[in-house]
Amino acid sequence: QKEVEQDPGPLSVPEGAIVSLNCTYSNSAFQYFMWYRQYSRKGPELLMYTYSSGNKEDGRFTAQVDKSSKYISLFIRDSQPSDSATYLCAMIGTGGYNKLIFGAGTRLAVHP
Amino acid sequence: EAGVTQFPSHSVIEKGQTVTLRCDPISGHDNLYWYRRVMGKEIKFLLHFVKESKQDESGMPNNRFLAERTGGTYSTLKVQPAELEDSGVYFCASSQDRGSYGYTFGSGTRLTVV
Question: Which of A83, A90, A81 minimizes the C-alpha distance to A111?
Fold first, then answer.
């Protein structure tokens, strides 16, 4: 079983839609949760990070962590064609060294 | 500031040959990481340097892979001899400290072994 499960999509939505991206995980030691965005032929770019459970908002993006359910989400409001990319969740456990454990990534296409 | 730079951006080599990938981290970043994504799989950790020391190399697949970071600046990842299953995208990332909020990735080197 993978430590982090993420539906690879693809997910296609119209411009202006609310997008919901999700990951589940199995390791209860994970403490830090991140969302990266990756455009084609580029490296992952950090979008959001949260520590432990709760919500965090940054502009059109909201990250949620529910540690009791081992479930994290990223919501994108008023989606734009420029949001079309692959979104990767990533996690870090305790114990130092900050090794990221990635989900498979969800491909998102926002069409005008 | 300049980002994390990787080169070459793309390399095609024959099975059995040697390839060396290079990563220049952001200046002043002590932590340097190598990750890779093989076809259809998740991005996976390879190893972590703190300055010139290997902090964690638990993700290195086998002894055909050798990473170095002499002087604690740029790093190289050598694959010798390359096998078909080594094909994928190799990412380098760096961070200033062991901050838990993620790090800056380079654009990756796409390695194709034929």
Answer: A81
Q: Which of A2, A51, A101 is the closest to B100 by Cβ? A: A51
pLDDT-derived band at A56 (thresholds 50, 70, 90) equals very high
| Nearest CB to B102; choose among A31, A41, A49 | A49
**Which residue in chain A is spatially nearest to B4 when comparing CA positions?**
A43
CB-CB neighbors (< 8 A) of B102 in chain A: 34, 36, 46, 49, 90, 100
Cβ contacts of A10 within 8 Å, gap of 6 or more: A106, A107, A108, A109
Residue B59: other Cβ atoms inside 10 A = 16
Per-residue pLDDT band at A86 (split at 50, 70, 90)? very high
CA A60/CA A17 separation, integer angstroms: 11
Two structure tokens written together for B62: 């086998």
